[in-house]
Amino acid sequence: MREFFRKNRRFLIILLIVAVVASAFVYVRGSRADTTSQFQTAAIGRGDLTATIGATGTVRAKQTAVLIWQAAGTVDGVNVNVGDDVSANDELASLSKTSLPQSVIMAEADLVDAQKALDDLLTSDTSRAEAVIALRDAQEVCDRAANWRKELNGRIHIKKIVYKKFGNRTIPILKEYRGYADKETIAKADEDLALAKAKLDDAQRTLDNLSNGNSAEMIAAQARVDAAQATLNLARITAPFAGTVTESHSLPGDQVGAGETAFRLDNLSSLFVDVEVSEVDINSVSIDQAVSLSFDAILNKDYHGKVVQVAKAGNDVNGVVSFTVTVELTDADELVKPGMTAAVNITVKEMQDVVLVPNRAVRLVDGSRVVYLLVDNQPVKTEISLGSSSDTMSVIAGGDVTEGDTVILNPPVEFGPGGGPGGGGFGG
């Protein structure tokens, strides 16, 4: 055996070298194949993109009112149940008269007296007739004063008695001639006219007040009626607007105190969601933009809405500025209820036939956006700039990337500085 190795040593050494090289080649090739196979890739292509802004908020009704008892007493009757629709001013519940404070009970008598006094003023026409006569007289005085002042603007006729002697008799003779009014006469005429106009205005105002039911007596009488009625209303709960009873806390026979909650009323004709949008995004939001909504409480169903109000001033909370945006649901059904949490996506831009890259492929390296393209089975870092984005895709606005390139969705750690995949996720 030794003789064999000695005679064939050179041949065996060459054979060993060939085997080692072959093994290394197979190992490197296998390693490259393993490295390549671990990449997840996608082809950069064209498509449509809908850019949205996401936020969460709570559903609310168009109007909401929590109705409380204004007086203490025993509940006499409850006229509605939860879910009932009511009209404005409908009586929802009332207190027993015998359980009310004395001031409320006496208000009923006060209301009768005050209403009678008001009715008497409304039906009696004596005051108005007197006001009509007073206005007519004031108008006549004013007209005479105005005519006299007008005559004083020019020459006037002056009558004077002179005496002329005829024989043994002296006879008075009335002579007329033209002259001008003196300043004192004109000043007095102006004063008389001003006073006549003031009295005429007073007479007209008195008649108007009586005709419109706004005389001082009527105003006072109406105030007494309103005060008595307001006191009586303390014993009952009425609907301030048309809506749906969403909570009821009172039953007949309950002893209630002033300030206790009786009902909650919601106007469910429209439902809204108020969301907070960052100052970075608020200028992209405008009235009538389309909105999609989803609810954790309502599975496998999406709803739609529109932006109806955008706040003009921001709210600063711990240094973070946000703006309130109000969204109205346009296809809400009975499943959507006030108080539910909604995930809201506002569509701020829609783009067609643009070059798109998956967001998960984009990394932030040294302050620049980059992707890793797969070229000859090797990752190649390439800087890009992005336009509008959605939750999953972004528009490629610039960079050495073309349609059809293969982009790596999961570049390994070693290709990114700082110990993170590619230097950090997309994050945008």
* End-to-end C-alpha gap: 72 Å
Mean pLDDT: 82
The strand count comes to 21
Low-confidence stretches: 416-428
CATH topology of the largest domain: Helix Hairpins
Shape: elongated
Task: Bin the helical content.
Answer: 25-40%
What structural class is derived from the secondary structure elements? alpha+beta
**Beta-strand percentage?**
35-45%
Strands side by side in the biggest sheet: 2-11-15-13-12-16
Order of helices and strands: HHEEEEEHHEEHHEEEEEEEEEEEEEE
Largest sheet: 6 strands, antiparallel, barrel
CATH class placement of the largest domain: Mainly Alpha
Q: What is the number of domains?
A: 4
> What's the total helix number?
6
In the CATH hierarchy, the architecture of the largest domain is Orthogonal Bundle
- Cα gyration radius (Å): 48 Å
Short note summarizing the structure:
This protein has 428 residues and is of the alpha+beta class. The protein is built from six helices and 21 strands.
Question: Explain this structure to me?
Answer:
The protein has six helices and 21 strands. It is an alpha+beta fold and 428 residues long. It has four domains: 2-36; 39-48 and 352-423, conserved putative lor/sdh protein from methanococcus maripaludis s2 fold, CATH 2.40.420.20; 53-60 and 266-351, Efflux pump adaptor protein, beta barrel domain (Elongation Factor Tu (Ef-tu), domain 3), CATH 2.40.30.170; 123-225, Helix Hairpins (Orthogonal Bundle).
